Amino acid sequence: MKKFFVFFIALSFALGLSACAGEDDTIKFGVIGPLTGEYDLYGVAVRNGAELAAAEINAAGGVLGKTLEIIAYDSKGDAAEETNAYNRLMDQDEIDALIGGTFSGVTLGIKSLAVEDGIPVLTPTATNPDVTLEAPNVFRACYTDSYQGQVAAVFAADTLNATNVAVLFNRDDAYSEGLADAFMAEFDDLSLSYTAYEFGATDDDYSTQLTLIRDSATAFDAVFVPAYVAEVGPILTQANTLGLEMPFIGGDGWDGIEGQYAAAAEGNYFANHYAKTDEAQVVQDFVANYEEEFGETPNALAALAYDAAYALAAAFEAAGSAENAAVVAALADLEYTDAVTGSITFDENGDPIKAVTIIKVVNGEQTVEAKVEAS
Question: What is the average per-residue pLDDT within 97-126?
Fold first, then answer.
């Protein structure tokens, strides 16, 4: 009996070593985003972009000589689901770093957990300014809501010569409200006029607000709508039906609007992190490889996730370790210049400062209208 017990312990120890050895051969990046439902185009794009980067990184030798694995879970666009996904990634999968979350609201929901755990976090697409504040291990590859809203206001004023703008935003969404606040603050600084109009997360009829905008006693030169495609598409469609002729301007949540809503979006503008028509070689290589792998053109979220995976991998290599603190320190000092969405260097808050690409929808295609920076 004693010999059997000793043998069992030895066997268990050997199996444990074998399992650890297998895990030691892998670096794991977690991804959280909506993979099903109304907003799945965003989460799927983030997962795909990260997986494409991982495949290329592994073909080139991996990370620290180990295989990079992407583990993605569906947040369903819900904060509770995202928390469950985060806990599963940490406790069950034992990830080495986190790409995500995809949306600002749910990312803010797991921020305190990530800070407590100290895990390196590089969100590709959460743009709310609070995401990285008082969170030394949390970084982002995208510009912030405040910067994007500020740039949209500069574009409206300087390029479209707009002096009076209607701002139509979702009061129930941190992303939408953040962009609206920044736009209006910049217009205040420029001594220009605006009027704010709100809608709710469950609304699907925007005709009341649009009619007020159309019939305003002081004619609007443009309408700023910081929202996502699922909301923007119907808004633009109803605006066309109501005969609104002024240009509409949006943020990166509009990315992909030229798909289902090409006719409604024609001639309108939105800020984005990259344009698939950009002639830079790194952009065209990414677009070609993504299209070959997934059979569709990548949106900006896919490009940001692709860059985030590469930037994280570069930080691991610079750290020479998968230890949390070492990777976080390497991220803080990172200069990743070969990025699809523009060079990634982080400020003291973990935020990159980038030129914003302004895209115009022309004949159902994205065209680069301008690249704008705000002071």
Answer: 93
